[in-house]
Structure formats: structure tokens, C-alpha cells
């Protein structure tokens, strides 16, 4: 699994002009799933992202966690995180999981975050979405389960 996490002051996602997910302070997580992802990777990623300490404390040091700031999550499916641009000018997406695997992994990730007690909003899997965010910092991380211990 691969995620692009942005620390945000607010974020929302719209489908067809209608807001389907909206948060205040927290993380906007763009989530990609590949063919061999399992519940183990899903759990590993949820554990890592939800435990990061990337919010500023009173001394402007990044010491505070999502829990410390009462943060929320907006999770948006993003198959293009597995796009390959090596050849030609049009990316190919053969490394992105098909919906029959990607949807359960996406939903499992959301469930795991909710089980940790976080308020989680989502986009709509497979829909054309407009994602809007007010990034804080900006502070953005790319996290891949292949690179986690």
C-alpha cells in the first residue's frame, strides 16, 4: 500500500458538486493499493500513519500526534499512486490493484482507523472527485508499506 499524507487545517472532497467528506485539522490521506496488498500491510500502514507525531507543539517542534490535537482523517482512494511513467508520455497503471482487491483494502484501512477512535471521512471509490485542502506547513509524506518495518 502507498499513501500520500498531508497535514491539513481542513480538507474536503466533492463528487458531482456535492461534498461527500470534510474534516478540520488532521490528515488528508491519498491511498493506493497494489496487487499483493493484504490486511497485514493495511494494518501496518494504519498503525504508522495514526501514530506519527507531525503536529507542532508550543515550542514549534513536531512532537504532537493526531491524538494530541484531536485530529481527523479524510481518506481518498488514489489508484494513480501506482502509475508508471517510465515509458512514453501516458502513464500506465498496471501496478494498481483492480477494484475487487482495492475496495476491500481501502475499506479495511478506513475501518482500522475508525477502530483506533478517529473520525474518518472518505471520498467515493472510483468516482471523479474534487479534493480541496488547506495544507499546514506544508507537511506532506509519502509512505509505502514496502519501506516500513
Write down how many β-strands occur, each being a DSSP E stretch of 2 or more residues. Answer: 8
**Estimated structural class:** alpha/beta
Radius of gyration: 15 Å
CATH superfamily, called what? D-tyrosyl-tRNA(Tyr) deacylase
| Fraction in helix | 10-25%
Q: Give the strand content.
A: 35-45%
What would CATH call the architecture?
3-Layer(bba) Sandwich
Amino- and carboxy-terminal Cα gap: 14 Å
CATH class: Alpha Beta
Q: What name does CATH use for the topology?
A: D-tyrosyl-trna(Tyr) Deacylase, Chain: A
Total count of helical runs of at least 4 residues: 3
| Overall morphology | globular
**Total number of domains:** 1
What does the average pLDDT come to?
96
Q: Which sheet architecture does the biggest sheet show?
A: 6 strands, mixed
Order of helices and strands: EEEHEEHEHEE
Unreliable segments of 5+ consecutive residues: none
Amino acid at each position: 500500500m502507498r499513501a500520500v499524507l498531508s497535514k491539513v487545517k481542513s480538507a474536503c472532497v466533492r463528487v458531482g458538486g456535492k461534498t461527500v467528506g470534510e474534516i478540520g485539522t488532521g490528515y488528508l490521506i491519498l491511498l493506493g493499493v497494489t496487487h499483493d496488498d493484504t490486511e497485514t500491510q493495511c494494518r501496518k500502514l494504519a498503525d504508522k500513519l495514526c501514530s506519527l507525531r507531525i503536529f507542532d507543539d508550543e515550542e514549534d517542534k513536531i512532537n504532537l500526534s493526531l491524538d494530541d490535537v484531536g485530529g481527523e482523517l479524510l481518506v481518498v482512494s488514489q489508484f494513480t499512486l501506482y502509475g508508471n511513467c517510465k515509458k512514453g508520455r501516458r502513464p500506465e497503471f498496471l501496478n494498481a490493484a483492480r477494484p475487487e482487491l482495492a475496495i476491500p483494502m481501502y475499506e479495511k484501512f478506513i475501518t482500522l482507523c475508525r477502530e483506533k477512535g478517529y473520525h474518518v471521512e472518505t471520498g467515493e471509490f472510483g468516482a471523479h472527485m474534487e479534493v480541496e485542502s488547506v495544507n499546514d506547513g506544508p507537511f506532506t509524506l509519502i509512505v509505502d508499506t514496502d519501506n516500513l518495518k
